[in-house]
Each structure stands twice: as C-alpha cells, then as structure tokens.
Design a protein that fits this description.
There is one protein chain. This protein is α/β, with parallel strands linked by helices. Helices cover 36% and strands 24% of the residues. It has helices at 40-47, 70-74, 92-96, 98-102, 107-120, 137-149, 167-184, 195-201, 219-224, 229-235, 239-246, 272-281, 302-308, and strands at 2-11, 14-24, 29-33, 55-60, 63-64, 77-81, 155-159, 187-192, 204-209, 212-217, 265-267, 286-290, 296-301. It has a six-stranded mixed β-sheet, with helices on both faces. A four-stranded antiparallel β-sheet has the order 2-1-4-5, with helices on one face. Helix 7 links the parallel strand 7 (155-159) and strand 8. It is globular, with a radius of gyration of 22 Å. The protein starts with a strand and ends in a 5-residue tail after the last helix.
C-alpha cells in the first residue's frame, strides 16, 4: 500500500531523513516513533507530498506520488494533526465535508456521510452546527479524525493527533481510535513521541534516530529482541508493563477458576496490566475470569500472565 524507497531529505545542508526504506501493508497501523528531531514527521509528510524529497521514491498503491499533483493526492489521503487545523469560520458539518465537497459529492451524500462520521467518532448530531470555538479539545480532535475519514480514504496519516489533550481524554481517544481502526481497516501511518501511545496502538513500531530507522517490528518484537542498546534504553524498564496493556485476558489460555467466592474477578476484555494490578492491590496470585454472561469461565495466576504474554502476539 505505502512504500518508501531510499528516501532522503535535507534542510540547509542538514540531512533530516537519511536513506529510509519502509513498506506499510494494506490495513496496517504503523507507528513512526523516536525522539524529537529524528525525522519521523518529515517521513510522514513525504507520503502526501506536504514536502518534496531530495532523493528516493514514495509509492502509494504502486504509483509514485511524484507523478500525482499534491492537491489530487491529498484528497485521497486522510490527514490529522495535533493542532487539528479546523477552519474556525465553518461549522463542524462544513469542516468534515471539506474534501467531499472538493470531490464534487452531491449534497445528500455529504449530509449522510457527515452524520455517519459524527456517530462513528462518538459525537451527537447536534455537534454538526457548532463552530470549532464551541468544542472541547477532545471534541475538536474527534472532528479532526472525522474530517480525515470523510472521503473514505484508504490511507490515513496522523501526526501526534492526540498530543495536545489531557491524559484522561488522550487515553480515551487512543482506545477509541484503536477500536475504530480494527473496524475500518484503514492503512495508517501514525507519528508520536509517546511510547505508551505507540505500544497501545501500533501493529508495528518503526523506531527512528537521527533520520534513520533503528528497528522495525511489532512492539513485542522490540521488547523481546531489541536490536541495540538505544532501543533497550529508549523503551526503558517499563516496556514489559506497557506490552501487558496491549493484551487482554481473552488472549491467554485460561486455567481453572480459584475455589471459593473471595477471589478478585476480571472480565475477558480486561487488559493484562490491569489484571496484574488487581492481583497486587488485593494481595493475591489468582483471579477468576467472567464471561459476557457474568459466569465464571476460568482463572489466571500471576505466573500465567507473566509467562503467557511472552508467547502472545
């Protein structure tokens, strides 16, 4: 779906992206992660020709982006950024409808699409008539995501889209976006400097440093087999706990339920980090697991969680 071949970009003689090659498959959510100035945003912006590269090639669906006009290309690639970039004089409806209008959609089709997207991102129909100044930060980010999805693009580029939010709203939107991606199956390239966000969302993490890719793989791959000390040090000692947040009780084979009714209870959709925290808080090494009918369907021990997640993808 997206392929970068030996992409290089320099500013004033300083190389920002240095011979980067990367392929992102259809339906994949790839995270570009790394410290400030590592080249991740420049790499992202090369995909939709927000900037032109000095060397190499970028292809989307096998076609070089250099052969397409920037405006035409961007109408078929969704783009969401940290500052949202909503047009302040337009209603939410008109903001979301920007690209469909440019593509010549009929009014009834646009209205139906806006209503569909407001529901998809968890906003009430009444938000359609509001101006951006009337929205909270979280609501504005939701509108930004809806606008990026408006023309149903196969590719979505996101540059720290939740970075300006408070921690509570940020975590809520991260989890909602993860679920949204699972439902829609878009090809997403997502830039962040936040490790927690990268581990929670990414099918793959592309870790960059000084304009180059240091390691590329699933979060579990980088956790189990860091390529170098930089990778190990960048993710730190809490990497394993962050990996636990990616997996749920349902990902592990269940053992027998603990005897008696006093054991803590968790659900199949509870993530493993919260499951371990529950054990520690209640001073136990065993939890009972409830299914969707609230019936006990098995159990997990502390050891099951710690060892099982190393074999889980």
């Amino acid at each position: 779906m997206i392929e970068l071949r030996n992409v290089t970009k320099a500013y004033n003689g300083a190389v920002v992206v240095d011979d980067v090659s990367l392929t992102v498959g259809r339906g994949e959510l790839a995270i570009l992660l790394g410290p400030s100035g590592c080249g991740k945003t420049t790499t992202l912006r090369a995909i939709n020709r927000m900037l032109d590269i000095d060397a190499g090639e970028v292809l989307v669906d096998g076609v070089s982006v250099a052969t397409r006009s920037p405006d035409e290309l961007r109408r078929h690639i969704g783009y969401a950024i940290q500052s949202v970039g909503l047009f302040p004089h337009m209603s939410v409806h008109r903001n979301i409808a920007t690209v469909p209008r440019l593509l010549g959609w009929e009014r009834i089709r646009i209205d139906e699409r806006v209503a569909e997207l407001l529901e998809l991102v968890g906003l009430a129909p009444s938000h359609a008539d509001k101006k951006p100044a009337e929205l909270s930060g979280g609501e504005a980010q939701r509108v930004g995501v809806a606008r990026a999805l408006a023309a149903d693009p196969p590719v979505l580029l996101m540059d720290e889209p939740f970075g300006a939010l408070d921690p509570l709203n940020r975590e809520r939107l991260q989890r909602e976006f993860a679920e949204l991606h699972r439902r829609l199956g878009k090809t997403v390239v997502f830039v962040t400097h936040d490790i927690e966000e990268a581990v929670l969302l990414g099918d793959r993490i592309v870790l960059m440093r000084d304009g180059r890719i240091v390691q590329d793989g699933s979060p579990e791959d980088l956790w189990r087999a860091p390529a170098c000390d930089f990778v190990r040090d960048f993710f730190g000692d809490e990497f394993g706990l962050r990996i636990l947040s990616r997996h749920r009780v349902a990902d592990l084979p269940l053992g027998e339920a603990p005897e008696g009714d006093d054991a803590p209870r968790v659900r199949l959709h509870t993530n493993l980090r919260d499951t371990l925290a529950r054990m520690v808080t209640e001073s136990t090494s065993h939890v009972a697991v409830l299914d969707d009918t609230d019936a006990v369907c098995g159990g997990l021990t502390f050891g099951d969680v710690v060892t099982g997640v190393r074999e889980t993808r």
